[in-house]
Amino acid sequence: MARKGKENKNDKVLTLKRRLLAHNSPKDPAAEQYRTIRTNIQFSGADQEIKSLVLTSSGTAEGKSTTASNLAAVYAQQGLKVLLIDADLRKPTAHYTFRLENHNGLTNVLTRQSTLGQAVQETQVCNLYVLTSGPIPPNPSELLASHQMEEIIKEMNHQFDMVIFDTPPILAVADAQILANQVAASILVVSSGKTDKEAALKAKELLLNAKSKLLGAVLNNRKTDSSSYYYYYYGGN
């Protein structure tokens, strides 16, 4: 039984390492694709610098949280001061990925139980900071749509060079739309062989209805013919 427990623990550690591939395996071909996404985002902001992003997906398990974490990591590797916010107040994961406590986070700041400075945590990635979700609230959408959220976003933009929001699937709840309206741009994450085309089109429509600057989509979980590596692509809308 002890051996099985040890194997499960090792599997969990390996999964966490894969989630943060850009930091743990920077020479991996997939990590290079995250850097390509970063470059394309920077080019898309030629007229106006993009300093805040919302990442969402149409449904669950399409890789948006993994994409958000790795994108934050490659921005930090560029020397920028980056803040990743776990704004999925229903199923948060950032504290698992970065092995952080989640007692004090976004919900604490939104309810004025903590300041932003008190809630933000350093990570193992130089220049990358994380604001975990905090305790799961009964009213996530109302909190994210509050005036306090608007003020916090202004404070974040002032303190950090890049702010990335990991939000819930946009077809499930209104949270992603609410935040997409308040930040500089948005990106839709889709999963190869899983995301339904109609669902992706509906997700795009909702982001545009929120008056968000939709930069494009990231296609993930696409395998090459002879490799187990996963590649990540960026494309305009």
What can you tell me about this protein's structure?
There is one protein chain. By secondary structure, the chain is of the alpha/beta class. The protein has a single domain, classed as Rossmann fold (3-Layer(aba) Sandwich), CATH 3.40.50. The protein is 43% helix and 19% strand. The protein has 11 helices and 8 strands. The protein has helices spanning 2-19, 21-24, 29-44, 64-77, 94-97, 106-110, 116-119, 140-144, 147-159, 175-180, 197-209, and strands at 52-57, 82-86, 121-122, 128-131, 162-166, 185-191, 214-223, 230-235. Strands 3-4-2-5-1-6-7-8 form an 8-stranded mixed beta sheet, with helices on both faces. A hairpin with a 5-residue loop joins strand 3 and strand 4 (128-131). Helix 3 crosses helix 4 (64-77). The chain is globular. Mean pLDDT is 88; it is low at 1-7, 9-15 and 225-234.
Walk me through the topology.
Layout lengths: L1 H18 L1 H4 L4 H16 L7 E6 L6 H14 L4 E5 L7 H4 L8 H5 L5 H4 L1 E2 L5 E4 L8 H5 L2 H13 L2 E5 L8 H6 L4 E7 L5 H13 L4 E10 L6 E6 L2
Parallel strand pairs: 1-5, 1-6, 2-4, 2-5, 6-7
Antiparallel strand pairs: 3-4, 7-8
Helix pairs in contact: 3-4
What does the radius of gyration come to? Answer: 17 Å
Helix and strand composition category: alpha/beta
Helix content: 40-55%
**Do you know the CATH topology?**
Rossmann fold
Mean pLDDT: 88
Major sheet details: 8 strands, mixed
CATH architecture: 3-Layer(aba) Sandwich
What is the 3D shape?
A: globular
Helix and strand pattern: HHHEHEHHHEEHHEHEHEE
Number of strands: 8
Strand order of the largest sheet: 3-4-2-5-1-6-7-8
CATH homologous superfamily caption: P-loop containing nucleotide triphosphate hydrolases
Strand content: 15-25%
Counted up, domains total 1
**CATH class designation:** Alpha Beta
**Low-confidence region ranges:** 1-7, 9-15, 225-234
The DSSP helix count reads: 11
